[in-house]
Amino acid sequence: MKTPAMPMLDRILFTEEEIRKRVKEVAAEISERYQDGNLKMVGVLKGSVFFMTALARELTIPVKVDFLAISSFSNHSGSPGVVRIAKDLDESIEGEDILLVEDIVDTGFTARYLMQTLAGRGPNSIAVCTMLDRSSRRIVPLRIDFRCFEIPDRFVIGCGLDYKQLYRNLNFIGVLKPDK
Ligand code: PRP
After folding, report:
1. How far apart are CA 124 and CA 5, in angstroms?
2. How many other C-beta atoms can be found within 10 angstroms of the C-beta atom of residue 94?
3. Does CATH number 3.40.50.2020 belong to domain 19-71+84-153?
4. How many angstroms separate the alpha carbon of residue 69 from the centre of ligand 1?
């Protein structure tokens, strides 16, 4: 999707070209790290699909892919952090090198929950790769193994990230105006 008329778009944070270049660099790091491995990319629906596809295409090693979906809730005091798997992986991950692929890590609750859950299934290794890291919102400590970009604390859309389920298919990352 090319740049549409979007009155609520404040600015473009990363262009298609910048994203493509950075994805290629991160894919090279991943290909190097897992060249003797047994890599399976695990995508978290729905946001990660676009990034995961772009990343996988740049890898120079064989890779398997699988997906899961999560639901997150606030607890009784309104705090975030209650996460459960709404759609599980199709296959076992035992003995595999798992790369959890996210479009964005914010509080870290989702990625930490998934890392802990998947670690209990006997993978050979487990790591996290995110397109965007909004670390200023982090609540739980989390080691990010591969990241494309650190971003400011703003609402972003594009490349999988939505506003009311729209704009995931933008090929750039945009910032919405503050009142959105
Ligand atoms: C986003 C993103 C991560 C999660 C990160 O998913 O894809 O899964 O939020 O947030 P956290 O670090 O605060 O846990 P979202 O719930 O927006 O679903 P979507 O991918 O379907 O848009």
Report:
1. 47
2. 9
3. yes
4. 10
The answer, yes or no, to whether any atom of ligand 1 lies below 6 A from the CB of 103, is yes
User: How many angstroms separate the CA atoms of 125 and 39, rounded?
Assistant: 9
- Verify whether ligand 1 is closer than 6 Å to residue 131 (CB atom): no
Give the alpha-carbon dihedral of 135, 168, 45, 53, to 10 degrees. Answer: -90
133 lines ligand 1 (CB under 6 A): no
pLDDT for 3-43, tens place per residue? Answer: 667 888 999 999 999 999 999 999 999 999 999 989 999 99
pLDDT tens column, 146-168: 999 999 999 999 999 999 999 99
C-alpha 75/C-alpha 67 separation (Å) is 26
Domain spans, the chain: 19-71+84-153
For ligand 1, is residue 123 a contact (CB within 6 Å)?
no
Pick the residue whose CA is nearest to atom 5 on ligand 1.
Answer: 105
Q: Cα(96) to centroid of ligand 1, in Å?
A: 24
Tens-place pLDDT, residues 53-91: 999 999 999 999 999 999 977 666 656 668 899 999 999
